[in-house]
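User: Thanks for the earlier help. One more: DsbA family oxidoreductase. Can you show the sequence and predicted structure together?

Assistant: Of course, both are below.
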Amino acid sequence: MDKVRIDIVSDIVCPWCIIGYKRLEAALMTLADTVNADIQWHPFELNPAMGPEGQNLREHLNEKYGTTDEASVSARQTLTTLGQEVGFEFNFADDSRIYNTRKAHQLLMWAYSENKQFDLELALFHAYFTHGKDISQENILLECAEHVGLDLDVARTVLNDPTWAESVASTEQQWLEAGINAVPAIIINRKHLISGAQTSELLVSAINKIIAEHA
């Protein structure tokens, strides 16, 4: 078995991040007989200045990218279809909102040390995209933490400890300085960057090529 280190830089409110991961998951299933992947998730906030109330998603896309209502509806339909193809359920609505994700990333950073990061990451994606929950709120984050078996008292401390917030900000700055300015970003063996939600076929090919180069 070839051991492969995979770092995923992502944000929970990024639909392409969960699509990208599910495609990677399919690629790794194809390679299951030859590749043993060690995956770690890393924080990237698309909207670090987002207020606690969040913002209507369509309004946000219009303000940030100039996306028209028609284009927004079309994008939602495309994402929903792509989600179905990879086995993930998106439930967009006209009142869908986008939220600040700093505290969610604090929890994810701690969850890594508890070997629960992967479970929590998926739980947060489902909470936000499938169930439309406000993943900036402490009660929702604690609900997700409890769901994956994390200690709630420690989780509560992590959410309210400014040093965890500083650790997230510092890590994000390191990725920015490394040239990562869009997500998802998948880094194989610490040096091979694959940007965006690439197809499973491309990921299989890329991983095989990387392994062959280092054989």
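User: Great, one quick takeaway?

Assistant: The CA atoms of residues 123 and 147 lie 8 Å apart.
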